[in-house]
Amino acid sequence: MLETILVVMLPIVVTMLLGFFAGWHQDFDKEQAGVLNKMVLLYALPLILFGSIITTPFSEVTANITVVLWIAISMIGGYALIVLFCRFALGNDYGLAALRALMIAGPAVAVIGIPILKPIYPSDATIAVAAGSLLMNIIQLPVTLLLINSAEARAPGAQTRSALAQMGTILKDTFKEPVVWASLSAFALILLGIDLPERWVGSFNMLGQATAGVALFAAGAILYSYRISLQRAVVVNVAMKNLVMPAVILGGMLLAGIRGDAVAATVITVAMPTAQIAFIFAVQYQKGEREMASSLFFSTLLSVITTGLFIYLAGRFG
What contacts 73, CB < 8 A, 6 or more positions away? Predict the structure, then answer.
């Protein structure tokens, strides 16, 4: 089991460290790394999202409602609570609150879900990965973009218009983003029972497969520019993502009397390190870049230990 975690997680850490070395060696500066992130956000990520969703039969998502429900509680309920806490208790604007919520409540399930879950819980791996991917792509990403656009519309110097007009512009800008309409169109197709030929899906995946590696490499290069930070916000983000969220879900499922592989698959999904998308959005919209980059780095680095811990706990108590 430890070997499985190391085989999956070490390439992620190494890729990020290579990016850090590239920044130190002055092969890539912050602006050039930002161009890489723009490519990921506009092209590679939408393609891989479309390809991954369109190949997931909707029946697989609904086959095990327990796994789907508890992942939704973590990713949607947790996201909403964090946004509200950051906005009204900490006084963050909606954009930063949304990025922090996505950092904490958004696991990298689409990238590393299958390699981690499939060898251990083959019957539940596809369901967990499909549920996590759909929840992030259909709900978390559009809402995050909506809140970021809302914060920008409220910023000093922004043109004052009626609330209805502002909301219309925000929605239009949000759904113009490729990561949003690509995910929504793929979801609509699977709801209609439309399958694409496998040879077409491969066309989407060729560039899409670069998403994780390029985003992590760019994160490392930008980390050198911003310097790795252990400020309080980063410590809280990583502790909440890697420890608190999966512990709460494990405790909730056990209190609800749920046992078996469903517990393990759900908890391990929640315990995965944070997805790169919060960092990509931070760079794209120039909001909280250093915090998001540092949180991504430490969440990924420490997940070699924390994800392994929850694999053990879920197997023991589930």
Answer: 249, 252
> 44 or 102: whose pLDDT is higher?
102
What backbone torsions phi and psi does residue 107 show, to the nearest 5 degrees?
-75, 155
Among 17-26, 74-83, 288-297, the range of highest mean pLDDT:
74-83
Q: Check: CB of residue 166 under 8 Å from CB of residue 146.
A: no
29 Cα distance to chain centroid:
25
Question: Cα separation of 53 and 192, whole Å?
Answer: 13
Q: Are 9 and 303 in contact (CB under 8 A)?
A: yes
Give the separation between CA 37 and CA 215, rounded to whole angstroms. 6
Strand partners, 107: 274
Q: What is the pTM of this model?
A: 0.79
Q: What share of the chain is helix, strand, coil (3-state, %, to 5)?
A: 80, 0, 20
How distant is the alpha carbon of residue 121 from its chain centre? 21
Give CA torsion, residues 181, 183, 185, 191, to 10 deg.
-150
